[in-house]
Amino acid sequence: MSDTAPAGSGRCVLVTGGSRGIGAACVSWFVANGDRVAYLARSPAKAADGALALACDVTDPDGVEAAFADIEARLGPVEVLVANAGITRDTLLARMDEEAWRAVIDTNLTGTYRVARRAVARMLRLHRGRLIFVSSVGAFVGLPGQANYAASKAGLVGMARALARELASRSITVNVVAPGLVATDMIEALDASRLEQMKELVPLGRTATAEEVAAAVGFLASEGAGYITGAVLPVDGGMGMGL
Length: 243
Hints:
Helices cover 43% and strands 16% of the residues. The protein is α/β, with parallel strands linked by helices and 243 residues long. α1 packs across α8 (210-221) and α2 (61-75) runs parallel beside α3. It is globular, with a radius of gyration of 17 Å.
């Protein structure tokens, strides 16, 4: 398939970690917008009608290459990348072993590097593209037990800003969405008292929906955000305000 998408078919969008939560909401948003959408997940499930689901672990370089080759053959080159795949291995630093550190960094940060690098290879030829990294308010507020997670999510901000300068001359924008407490499986796994304590840190006093985060991602991918690059957009109810 050529580097030019068929007329009127929307853009080719790839969402990593797209089988549930924020990723699934992003898939649904872009499908509803008329885009050609693919998503990656370790165990893909149906996220939205019209989306191409591919099994891929972003910690596997060969798997990432194979997934991109498949997407390009079926949908064309990726024009919008939403790097959302992420995991947690929360524990206090004194108890955090090498595996817990490595697994989170390799998935959340290095996995984003892998998919961004592969997507950019074709975006440079197109002279356009959108990279959107899904970080977290945890990168800024430093929640106890999340040294690995906070480091990985803060790293996304630094990488995005370096890439924003690197790629701007080719009309490729690079931005970050930083969600706060979102009603997903990760939050639902918390006990009720812990969740209430965290809600007390949120001025709006509630969790976000995955759809609210997806709307922010969609905005950064939209034509209206064409002059925004290197930005961090909080979707956190004010939790990280001023940080």
